[in-house]
Amino acid sequence: MHRTKLAWKLLLTVTLGSSSLVLATAETANTNTLEGNPAATALRAEVEAIESAALSDAAFADLLTRLERAEQPQLLAQAYAVRCLSLLGSDTNAAATVAEAGIVFAEKRSDVQALSGLYICRGYVRELDEQIDTAMADYDRAFEAAKRAGNRSDEAQAQALRGEIHYARGNFSQALSELLAAHRTSVEIADGARQRYALNAIANVYSDARVGQYAQALDYYRQVGREHEAAGNTPDVATNWFNIGSTLQITGEFAAAEEAFRKALAVYAQLDDARSLAQTRRALAVLYLRMDRPVEALAAADAALAFAEGNDPDFEQSNVDKPGVDQPDVEQPGDAASARLTRGSALRRLGRHAEAAADLASARNYFERNNNPRFVERAVAEQAEVAAAQGDWQAAYTARSEQLRLAEQLRSQADAELSSRLRVQFDSEHKELENTSLKREGELRSAALRDAERIRDLRGTAIALGTIVVLATVWVALSAFRRARQMRNLALTDELTGLANRRAILRQLEQRLAGKKHPAAPVLMFDIDHFKSINDRLGHDIGDVVLRKVALAAKRLIGGQGEVGRVGGEEFLVLLHAADADYLRAVAERLRQAVEALTFEAPATDLRVTISIGGCESGPHATRMEDLLKRVDLALYRAKSGGRNRVEFDPVS
Fold first, then answer.
1. Quick one: 445 and 548 in the same domain?
2. How confident is the model over 462-520, as pLDDT tens digits?
3. What is the pTM of this model?
4. Is the bond preceding residue 620 a cis peptide, omega within 30 degrees?
5. Which strand ranges, in their side-by-side order, compose the sheet holding 562-566?
6. Is 331 a catalytic residue?
7. Exposure string for 342-356, b = 16+ CB within 10 A, e = fewer
8. Which of 115, 181, 190, 294 could be disulfide-bonded to 145 (CB atoms 3.0-4.6 Å)?
9. Active-site option among 570, 571, 617, 648
């Protein structure tokens, strides 16, 4: 995955970048003006220096006391804000304490200028502590305070941080809306640091597999990287290499991805940035899994987990309490869960199933508690594979069913976002057509009135005008109908394969079981063998080609004899109109052979794809769809456990 946060150092740079602006505003607003007040001017200089000076707690407390005695409340509030932000990289607990005290002080005075920075700081601390909902609430407060204060820099930063949380949760439309607004504001105020921050976050969204705008994402990353190099932002250069590596991994350019990750590792090692080193090692572990190098993947995942749980043997003791270096004795639960998920995958591939099951259960529990369905789905998919490898088919079936439910939930969310974009497009076009029609009608009426004195009989003009208005109205109605039909098709069609989606094919099955004309419902369920391995070795683009070709082969073979739908990632359901047991078996075998005969172009010319098929009939008295699906799914698992590339039927059929 991509780093949804740049290194804390970038946030610190970005947020502190506006401190001089904030302090200047505080000076303007201060009733006890600094002009002609050398003592107050000196205090302001001390506040400005907080971000660069390594103040002790005692020195900061002394500064607060002197600001209070000098009756400089705006500067005092800003001192809290700058102090909090300056502590983010070295002591988040102290940053949180300063933020709380500063917020209490600034809220009493309704000092929105200081509050925006304080809320951003406290929100970021909460986000690091996995308190996502409360962090989002703080970013909302920061945005509102910044708007009231006219502080567009903090307004843009709050939007960017909210957008990143939406992205982490899989809410891509909301994420892009926030991030594009943040970038637009940053451009308007010529804030280069925030522009880079927002553009990097936008690239993260584009490079997500569910958005898939990889070329655009790489362009943005490279643009941001050049700007960071020119500005000498070494930590952010490393983060940029990390994100480029993550994107290249998704597109299947594994050698280039490994090179990018190693460049990031080299820079993070120079910076003694232990947490970023651990996150990059986990990313390398994921890459090694896709390259079928599980031994190296396990070593990298072990190193990442050691840091996340505070047991990193490579972390030098001299780094303890070192400003700017993440401390290993503080457990990072999110990092640990991600590392365990990757480690569990590596252990499964190495045949160490009991250890894999323990890691995957731990990761799943964490992601469920933190409402992250994307990672829960990945953990459950791995659990199904482990259970199948151990021969526990009931557990494998249960996990697989849950994984399909989660996949459908994520797919429905993606469909809803597509429908939302289509609906916006439809509303815009519909309104445009209405406006065009009204404008044209008005022009025609004006022309008719102007010509009234010269034309004795206006009947022909009126008829023509009415005809045009009617035609325009029909045009609007037809456009609305076509768009509504497009939206209906979108809701019932799998976007990648063009087949009926899970919702549509299951609805047909349910109607069949409830109908009187068809007392039996012959069904086949098939799964592409080792599909995850295809994705891991050749990349998701080739995986998509496989899905489309298998879907087309099934659709051509079934033809008018029934319906084919995609019900999961690589799982399909065939619903035949009518068939006895022998015919159903013959169709299943022809389908298996048709897929096995598929060929592929470079770079997958050597790829051989097979499927495992399970089949059953409902029988004249079986009317529960859930029971039928369970039977056919268990038949499918028997086909997979029997060596794959085979057909198995429910014994009742």
1. no
2. 455 556 555 655 555 565 555 545 444 555 788 888 898 888 888 888 888 876 555 56
3. 0.52
4. no
5. 562-566, 571-576, 523-528, 611-616, 647-649
6. no
7. bbbbbbbbeebbebb
8. 115
9. 570
